[in-house]
Amino acid sequence: MTLEVKGIQYTYGKYLVLDGIDLPIVEGEIIGILGPNGCGKTTLLKNLNKNLSPQGGCVLLDGVDLEEMAKRDIAKKVAVVPQTNEIHFAFTVRDIVAMGRMPFQSMMGGQSSEDERIVDEAIRRTGLEKYAERHISTMSGGERQRVIIARAIAQTPETLLMDEPTLHLDISMQFDALDLVSRLSKELGMTVVIVSHDLPMVARYCDRIVMLHDHKVHAIGRPEEVLTEENMRVVFNVDAELMLDEKSGKHTVMLHGSLNKYRGVNNWACGSLRK
Amino acid sequence: MHLSMRSKILIATVVLMVLAFYCVFNDLSWISAGKSYSFSEVWDALTGHGSWASEIIVRDTNAPRVVAGIFVGAGLAVTGAAMQAVFRNPLASPYILGLSSGASLGAAAGMLFTIPFIPALIISPVLAFVTCFLTMVLVYSMARVGGSVRTETLILSGVAVSALMSALVSFLTFIAGDKLEGIVFWTMGNLGNAGWDEIAFMAPVILMCSFLLITQAKPLNAMMIGDAHAMDLGVDVRRTRLFVIILSTVVVAAAVSFVGVIGFIGLVIPHILRILLGPDNRHIMPLGMIAGACFILICDYISHVIAPQYGTLPIGVATSLIGAPVFIYLLIRRKREVGWN
User: What average pLDDT does chain A have?
Assistant: First the structure.
């Protein structure tokens, strides 16, 4: 499976959000799309499964332009883990994971035995066996996200897109979620695209990183190539450096502080609050 | 005792079918205060072997009312389930969102005024559809805050718009002159308003729309988790939402324009079924149709026997007497869960 992004442009009204983004995505890798808030990274992600359509350029899935594919056929190859919100209806975990099979079923059709096997497998791989009959409305944010990951796995996707997977999660759950995804990526040979502004997490888990700045690709490559002090200063306005965490043997980013500190500016301090 | 989903659905279907038969016969058997036919007499009257009086009462007086009730109850229940899914909100329903009042404005206008070239029978339904749809658009756009619809804003907009629509209906009632009594009783709901001609128009419309709504059960399930999830599963969320809203509007308009405002069915029935069977719309929607029909027939029977010395209680009052406390209970429970904010 290949997913290629060729020079896509996207504008909201007159605001240019993506300005000619090129992105070769390598099969089986975990690729992180990094950028500060408002740089267009979520918009880019939505363009990767036709939730939004680019005004210029194209996204090719196995060589076919997404614009020429039905949403259902895209859903058979590309699954998404969006940010999860509260769910007021008492679906069980199994109900929701089973929805992952929807793109493969007819309008009114039920589960085939093959579907059931895949759903069980997804539940097992995400470690949700004990929770299968629990109601989603009673679960915490981290547990809900795990269920949504299981639903995405049940879509048997070749590519998994994740939108800010660490947002709103406890720190230990952030590690759990990304450990789970990188394990699944290896076991299933699944390509994972993660959109985030969480520098240490992206440095730790991603094989390659794309840094967006001013609506363009600023840098692309392995973590040590992209997460240079210079790049993080320009794009994120922070004094930070990439380090090797000796205990885990993984990359991490040490954040020393905002650069505004040295310039004597504080974006949050309003006149009336200043002492 | 832990039952599998399949056996629960089977049991629910059988129980509801039996209940439905009972309700139909029960409601057909009513004669007058304290008097009713036995079920065998009802059967004889239906098959043409009954007495002259029983055939008139059962077939000409009671049967149209019962048949109208079946379609209206079924249609309103399935619409309620669909709207709750489309708004991701267990408290959405045609009555609470003001759709019923919206439709009643058009229907009342249709009763008072004649429009050239449109047959009298369909003026009310057509106008009801127009005002009902406008109400839906108004309530939905008022309730939308930054792309999402919250329960509190949805219900508040429903109440506000509903108040406006009811005031306009009251105004029409005020200037109705000799048609006043008809409109007043119609706004409180009256299954007896519908004769066979009206049923022949209303029934196919409601059946068709309900069937189309049920075909959307699976995409609606995905939308109950969230629009983003549904989109990622290949559902065309915008088209599905528009389709479901239009179908719901048609059902409400058809029901309201012939039998008046009958509230709370769309709220109560899907809710009870969800507690018993879980939220899957593939079960809730079809079974909701049977349950909605049962509910309205039970209410109709109660409205006949509760105070016979004063005549028949308007059915909208009966459904509200049962439905409003359920609604209050749901709000209190929600308050406990998330608090008001």
Answer: 88
Range of the structural domain that residue B223 is part of: 67-338
A273–chain B nearest CA distance, Å: 27
Q: Are the beta carbons of A108 and B231 separated by less than 8 Å?
A: no
CA distance A17 to A216: 9
For A129, the enclosing helix (H) or strand (E) is: none
Q: Which residues of B touch A148 (CB under 8 A)?
A: 229
Q: Does residue B128 share a domain with residue B269?
A: yes
**CA A79, CA A162: separation in Å to the nearest integer?**
9
- What 3-state class would DSSP assign to B315? helix
B60 inside domain: no
Are B130 and B170 in a shared domain? yes
- List CB contacts of A188: < 8 A, sequence separation 6 or more: A153
Question: Across the strands, what pairs with A194?
Answer: A32, A162
Same structural domain for residues B130 and B41? Answer: no
Q: Classify residue A108 as exposed, middle or buried by CB count within 10 Å of its CB (0-12, 13-18, 19+).
A: exposed
The pLDDT-based confidence of A273 (bands split at 50, 70, 90) is very low
Which residues in chain B land under pLDDT 70?
1-2, 146-149, 151, 335-341
Taking only the tens place, the pLDDT of each residue in B139-164 is 988 888 766 667 678 888 988 999 99
- Cα distance between the two ends of chain A: 58
pLDDT score at B149? 67
- Residues B194, B143, single domain; the answer is yes
Query: Residue B296 and residue A203: Cα distance in Å, rounded?
Result: 62
Q: Do residues B165 and B24 both lie within one domain?
A: no
**What does the pLDDT read at residue A266?**
59
B232/A88 touch (CB, cutoff 8 Å), yes or no: no
Q: What are phi and psi of A236, to 5 degrees?
A: -105, -5
Are B139 and B158 spatial neighbours (Cβ–Cβ below 8 Å)?
Answer: yes
Distance CA B315, CA B296 (A): 8
pTM here?
A: 0.86
Q: Which of A72, A83, A88 is the closest to B234 by Cβ? A: A72
Q: Are A54 and A8 in contact (CB under 8 A)?
A: yes
Looking at the 3D structure of chain A, how many domains does it have? Answer: 1
User: Given this model, what pLDDT does residue A275 score?
Assistant: 38
Q: Count how many domains chain B has.
A: 2
* B86-144: pLDDT as tens digits: 888 888 888 888 898 999 899 888 888 877 777 777 788 888 889 998 998 899 888 88
Give which of A196, A200, A249 is closest to A39, Cα–Cα. Answer: A196
The C-alpha angle A179, A182, A187, rounded to 5 degrees, equals: 120
What domain range is A97 assigned to? 3-273
